[in-house]
Specification:
This protein is of the alpha/beta class and about 425 residues long. It has 14 helices and 12 strands.
Length: about 425
């Protein structure tokens, strides 16, 4: 039996990283700084037991979490991940980053996140459905289309969202398509959602490159993570003339200095479950990925990947954070001192939640848009949001991360000030 994971908060974990990011932004908040404790405390954290009967007849218990960091600007919004490393601390940090991300893009949402501490690869499809439905029932007291709207994250997908939507709907007695986003199209999902996060990474990369006169044509791209996010980003960079020279996923690290054939690699991954074994490339040691000279480095896996030690070795001109919280605060400082520009996660990977917002709006209206309309709206919102953050960074002479937090936290705390305290 695994020990309970929510008994302590680590000093160097994701929540500590988030708190350090908040501390850096407080001096730029003016009179709103007195409300900064609103950012330092999650509004609500729910820990649930998720017992299910396994295929062999045994009963196993899993830990589930749903954290609502802020509901000041609207319903909670954030994904659900199934991973053996999920802890309350991690989910708290991810929920807080969703608060910042949604405000940075100016979406009418607060921040939330959820997860189950489980390795889904060890479950049968029947067991996966059971654990999803029981978890949904347990957190059903705090989620809803106007309360908190989950979405896919690590190791979850449209099928998981379909089960969550169906379970919630059965419990409330009516079909509630808007309770989750990232659903299959036939259940109220949105066109363009699957590749939205990767598309947003490309849009932010394109805008940043334009601002620093860095051509995408011929640029070298290195990717850590090659799921929906990394794969879609690689596809778009390659389509615009960049060379994706290295990719790392859970199966291995591959390299080709002339550029990998991304469509072929995506097909290979779909067939074999990872990039390992892909022909016409070299196999690299995973740690060597951080030493590769390139124009764009895109960490699109899990948080905490760019440490101080790795930051000293990175040979990129631009880091675009596809994952949530991939760069530790000390590493942020090192990258800035070395002149490496970081497009922070709270804007760089906001394409997914933006199209999730579109899906939620479409579900409420029962009126759906074409994929070209969705991509056009996404491009416009991301360009406007990045432009605001870039201008703030130039005005205050701060990093893009601090600028994003200034923009987002000002919006959250201004809303908090206007709403006041009840009672």
């Amino acid at each position: 039996m695994q020990p309970l994971s929510y008994l302590s908060i680590s000093e160097d974990g994701p929540w500590a990283t988030y708190l350090q990011q908040v501390e850096r932004v407080v001096p730029y908040l003016g009179s709103l700084g007195r409300l900064a404790d609103t950012l330092r405390r999650p509004k609500r954290a729910l820990i649930v037991d998720v017992p299910i009967e396994m295929d062999d007849g045994s009963i196993q218990h899993f830990e589930g979490f749903r954290v609502q960091h802020s509901l000041t600007r609207g319903p909670g919004k954030g994904g659900v991940r199934f991973h053996p490393g999920v802890t309350l601390e991690e989910v708290m940090a991810l929920a807080a980053w969703m608060t910042v991300k949604n405000a940075a893009v100016n979406l009418p949402y607060g921040g939330a996140k959820g997860g189950i501490r489980v390795d889904p690869k060890t479950l049968s499809m029947r067991e996966l459905e059971k654990i999803t439905r029981r978890y949904t029932s347990e957190i059903g007291i705090i989620i809803g289309p106007d309360k908190d709207i989950p979405a896919p994250d690590v190791n979850t997908n449209g099928q998981i969202m379909a089960w969550m939507m169906d379970t919630y709907s059965m419990n409330v007695g009516s079909t509630a398509t808007g309770v989750v986003t990232g659903k299959p199209i036939e259940l109220g999902g949105s066109l363009g959602r699957l590749k939205a996060t990767g598309r947003g990474i490309f849009i932010v990369g394109r805008e940043l490159a334009s601002n620093i006169s860095l051509p995408i044509e011929g640029a070298r791209v290195v990717l850590q993570g090659f799921g929906n996010v990394g794969g879609a980003a690689a596809e778009l960079f390659a389509a615009h003339g960049a060379k994706v020279i290295a990719v790392q996923d859970h199966t291995g690290t591959i390299y080709n200095d002339k550029g990998l054939d991304i469509p072929a690699l995506l097909a290979w991954q779909e067939k074999w479950g990872g990039v390992a074994g892909f022909p016409e490339c070299e196999v690299m040691d995973g740690e060597a990925l951080w030493d590769l000279p390139c124009e764009f480095l895109i960490p699109a896996a899990l948080e905490g990947q760019i440490t101080v030690a790795r930051a000293k070795r990175i040979q990129a001109k631009v880091v675009i954070e596809g994952a949530n919280g991939p760069t530790l605060p000390g590493a942020d400082d090192v990258l800035r001192e070395r002149g490496i520009v970081v497009a922070p996660d709270v804007i760089a990977n906001a394409g997914g939640v933006t199209v999730s917002y579109f899906e939620w709006v479409q579900d409420i209206q029962s009126f759906f848009w074409s994929e070209s309309e969705i991509n056009e709206r996404l491009d416009r919102i991301m360009v406007e949001a990045f432009g605001r953050i870039w201008a703030t960074a130039q005005d205050l002479k701060v990093s893009l991360r601090t600028a994003a937090f200034v923009v987002a936290c000002t919006r959250v705390l201004s809303s908090r000030e206007r709403r006041g305290l009840y009672p």
